[in-house]
């Protein structure tokens, strides 16, 4: 009787991670944590990121970076980087425009300034965009 557990060839192990996995985890973590920190700081108080739909959107998109980090496909990882980074860049741009508007309307410079959360989501977006760029160009160099 033939054994059903034997294999005819050697098993090939496929890596679960890719070269951008660590950077995607760090970028996703920056976007996720930055979504709940203050995005605008004023003398009267801070405005947290989750006070608007943009903070909730970036917080909801951030786990996609973690998912893309553990998938072994580079193209899927590139898409995950872009899906998380682009809403963070849009939200960061909108809030930076609000900081400039508050400063101009008040007529004094230290009226409002970007909070740590805004800096973190923009930093996370930069990390994710750089990772997508590196994964794209690493795929082109492969034979």
TrEMBL record:
<keyword id="KW-0472">Membrane</keyword>
<feature type="transmembrane region" description="Helical">
    <location>
        <begin position="21"/>
        <end position="41"/>
    </location>
</feature>
<keyword id="KW-0812">Transmembrane</keyword>
<keyword id="KW-1133">Transmembrane helix</keyword>
<protein>
    <submittedName>
        <fullName>Uncharacterized protein</fullName>
    </submittedName>
</protein>
<feature type="transmembrane region" description="Helical">
    <location>
        <begin position="78"/>
        <end position="100"/>
    </location>
</feature>
<feature type="transmembrane region" description="Helical">
    <location>
        <begin position="53"/>
        <end position="71"/>
    </location>
</feature>
<feature type="transmembrane region" description="Helical">
    <location>
        <begin position="112"/>
        <end position="133"/>
    </location>
</feature>
């Amino acid at each position: 009787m033939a054994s059903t557990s034997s294999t005819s060839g050697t098993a090939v192990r496929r890596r679960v991670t890719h070269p951008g996995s660590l950077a995607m985890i760090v970028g996703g973590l920056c976007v996720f944590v930055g979504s709940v920190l203050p995005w605008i700081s004023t003398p009267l108080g801070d405005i947290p990121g989750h006070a608007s739909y943009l903070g909730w959107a970036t917080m909801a998109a951030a786990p996609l970076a973690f998912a893309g980090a553990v998938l072994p496909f580079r193209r899927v990882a590139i898409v995950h980087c872009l899906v998380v980074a682009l809403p963070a860049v849009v939200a960061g741009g909108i809030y930076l425009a609000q900081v400039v508007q508050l400063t101009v309307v008040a007529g004094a410079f230290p009226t409002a300034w970007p909070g740590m959360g805004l800096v973190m989501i923009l930093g996370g977006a930069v990390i994710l965009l750089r990772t997508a760029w590196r994964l794209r160009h690493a795929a082109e160099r492969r034979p």
